[in-house]
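Interim report, section 4.2 (structural modelling).
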Amino acid sequence: MNAAVRAVAQAAFGKGWEVAAVESGYAGLLEGRFRSVDSGALSGWMSRGGTMLGTERSDDFATDEGKSRAVEAAREAGVEGLVVVGGGGSLAGALALDERGLPVAGIPATIDNDVAGTDMSIGVDTALNTAVGIIDRIRDTASSHHRAHVVEVFGRDNGYLAVMSALAGGADAVLTPEFETKPEDIVRLLEESYEGGKPHFVVVVSEGASPTADELCGHINDAGESYAADLTAAGHIQSGGGPTAFDRILAGRLGAAAVKALADGDAGKMMGLQGNVIERVPLEEIVGEDRPLDPGLYELAGELARIPR
Amino acid sequence: MNAAVRAVAQAAFGKGWEVAAVESGYAGLLEGRFRSVDSGALSGWMSRGGTMLGTERSDDFATDEGKSRAVEAAREAGVEGLVVVGGGGSLAGALALDERGLPVAGIPATIDNDVAGTDMSIGVDTALNTAVGIIDRIRDTASSHHRAHVVEVFGRDNGYLAVMSALAGGADAVLTPEFETKPEDIVRLLEESYEGGKPHFVVVVSEGASPTADELCGHINDAGESYAADLTAAGHIQSGGGPTAFDRILAGRLGAAAVKALADGDAGKMMGLQGNVIERVPLEEIVGEDRPLDPGLYELAGELARIPR
Amino acid sequence: MNAAVRAVAQAAFGKGWEVAAVESGYAGLLEGRFRSVDSGALSGWMSRGGTMLGTERSDDFATDEGKSRAVEAAREAGVEGLVVVGGGGSLAGALALDERGLPVAGIPATIDNDVAGTDMSIGVDTALNTAVGIIDRIRDTASSHHRAHVVEVFGRDNGYLAVMSALAGGADAVLTPEFETKPEDIVRLLEESYEGGKPHFVVVVSEGASPTADELCGHINDAGESYAADLTAAGHIQSGGGPTAFDRILAGRLGAAAVKALADGDAGKMMGLQGNVIERVPLEEIVGEDRPLDPGLYELAGELARIPR
Amino acid sequence: MNAAVRAVAQAAFGKGWEVAAVESGYAGLLEGRFRSVDSGALSGWMSRGGTMLGTERSDDFATDEGKSRAVEAAREAGVEGLVVVGGGGSLAGALALDERGLPVAGIPATIDNDVAGTDMSIGVDTALNTAVGIIDRIRDTASSHHRAHVVEVFGRDNGYLAVMSALAGGADAVLTPEFETKPEDIVRLLEESYEGGKPHFVVVVSEGASPTADELCGHINDAGESYAADLTAAGHIQSGGGPTAFDRILAGRLGAAAVKALADGDAGKMMGLQGNVIERVPLEEIVGEDRPLDPGLYELAGELARIPR
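Predicted structure of the assembly:
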């Protein structure tokens, strides 16, 4: 996200605008926590992981009255336009502010890749590479027969990160919220895999899948005394780390596009990557919408995993 | 490339085909150096950098007679279809073999991203992340006034890798073969940058640019006694290293698509990523063609660099 | 471990010896699974994580009769000397084989760093860097008040990895098996830390500590409704990955020393790093012994953590 | 170095001291550029590469008069003790300040590992791992016969980094300032290596070696038309990047020791790692001294490289 903030600031400087960063998200907006940003303040932001501006839940902002107060706070501070960088919840807030008269441009940023209207959100490529690094390391470990390594990755209700991790990590199976998998099929696959001479067996499970990673481990452990499952929850490891080149470039493109949209008086839009171009997507079209998982990628993960490796 | 070979093999196993890998490229094809590949042989290929099958220049294959002999060698070995993974030169060879009656499918793989008909070739994302890692490290080093760090990256006649490295690395300037830059403008930018209080100045230069990285360093060093330029040639560091998630997934998609094209009897095509879909592009349309650099990305790199960081 | 196997082979070739690698540890030794190793076979071993020879538990080898059969199997295969690379259990096996007349040299390799007689075992530095990378990433994630990140690292009964991870990761607290910590003290530290304005709070817990990482999370979550604890178990992520320079060099030094010890007829010894030199330590002195944790390092971790960062 | 500054500050806070950081080294000291450091100011320093305080050459400080003025500047600012983190030149400056009455403690930090009185300086382990990563990547690249990859690493007059990089990178040869190597011997080794079937040949050359990396490439290229040498200068890539666990821990230990030495009234000493303990070494014993290269490690690099890999 830091790279997106930097790009927004650079593009805004290019238009001769003054720039302030809001600390701690909508909570900070309500409290008027603006940090003035000049050309020197962003040194090193490009390569930093996490969110240097901080984030904080705000119960106040969740109310109608809170949202109106946020618009007032922004106006009092002289804010003429706001760029919101975040996931579905943040973009819903952005829409609410825009509807209340504050010109807003949205930039999708979430490792779950569950924001509609864009092929990729900022942070997904970094999280994906981290998850794949974890799978690689787990597969490196000394393996023994009839042991399954179950890796749980983020994604909320969206299996994107799980499917892509499985594809890139060469996993033997993947469980997502979108497609049903019976645990007994995984146990059978594990059995066949070791009979086929494979030295390891890795299943990637999306956090929203059913069975969950935990439940799948239980099924495997119960399947017979010669079976054992190791659970690794990638958890917050996925959210940190320096951003990949793709994420930095995406942040740069979306950030510059957001400033251009505000300059054009075209507020209330989210900048979305669609194929190779950046499109302005009305926030009202994407708020509350799900981003569907491409079934072709799910099938490909199965196709490339089908034969023991 | 290893991930592409693995994907081709997995997809071919899925069709019940027998698979052999050709060692050392066309040189190995001429000499009949086939390595039989079964399901166990590819363990670990996913995460390995470089080219495990090796590459070798072949003067023999460069002749018409050599190409005809290669087709014969393939037929004698019972080869019914060939998947060629490589850059422009390799794909030109693939077209020649296909024209001589050996069904061939092509997969673009080169870190220069100069193959027409595809948005990305396998290897580009990995090389890009390596180049950005190099830029990050160079910017970390203790900086002193009026010193410019010049980083030369690969790309042959194509500035893609340079522009994307500059964008992702937050470079202050980028020189490519496609756009002219006067060295005195770089010196002036360097001057302004340090007067603006920036602690470092990084220029990315594509290997095909004019002035070259070497020449640019000369210009900077000659510009006055208070100027100094450090040259870092990323060179072969860019070509190695474990592949990123994007490259592994692209390899998986292109590899499976190549097998499907051969299975459909649709030979003579290169699999290309266009937007989000894999297209079959006639080899004759892309051989000898240049892949143009998106001027929007070049301009964006300039826009985000304009203001000192 | 692969780097150690490579070093042993290289040093043995230097003495003109023939070399065979035993697959799957003592299980493979009993079954005579020797893999002949020549100079070309080890290409690329240096940089590979995990154990390319595999490991396997052997119930047979656990018996006296099994150990005698292993010595016979080795002799029948013409083995004149054996180098065992592994942790405490493997080195106990090595001693048993040596006592039964097979000359053995031991090399300590375990990420737990719990082998006596050596400052460092092979694998510790790599695991430590992985654990620190995990802590860095977790600290990068957006933080909110009164939330504690609890990271569980390996180490069995030894707190070395936990203390060193905490020191290098800049953790706020560390729990080890060797030193008692009351969970209420951690809760109080967490409270003070956020009152002091720190944006994150990270505790490293050794797997053998009491309270365990799980129990500590429970304590924190029970401490009040404004508290929450996130558990990240580094688990098998720590065991994989390409080895660090230190581990490769240590492997090279210990491997060469083991071959030299066998060549000198000085069997029954483990090669140990003590300060800057490699010593030959009698296996009987280290088998069953614990490696004590340096209390100075534990205190230093506390000293550097005491003040909010 | 950032980790060392953080450790000094943490340890000093522990003694109830006030802490200020000097920007841009001795140049900043002369100009009184002190930055007050409190407990919140050091967040994130642990994991940052480079030198966040900056460095700058100072011609003024090089004079006797300049050194006296620096002591005055420190006194005026209320400085009662100074910790200097740096290489040989910085530590010579530290001795001069101490002799002029300002209590100083020294901490060795240089990637060249050429400071006497300590086994390791801060930064060496990080630079070593970077150099090894470069060698790994270069070896990954497609190789062809009779091509030598020559990698130049830092080290000034000290071959430590070259020898350790060669050992850890599995290089085929290493050239250092301390030991003479004839270029024709390298050419012969290259020849033998490819005749022995090795797919690549890597030579590590210390920047102070004779022949230099450049000269060696010339020799190889002149040796016959079938030979070619690729030069990769690791250069400033080595100086940046996030610090390894070892470097962070060493920084923590040396930083705490420096504060303790000042608290004990034992100024004029450099903190040195000797074996496993931190010793206080009189600055006058190490200034101007060379740190000898361990010939055993040089021989080991040769022993492990002797046989083709």
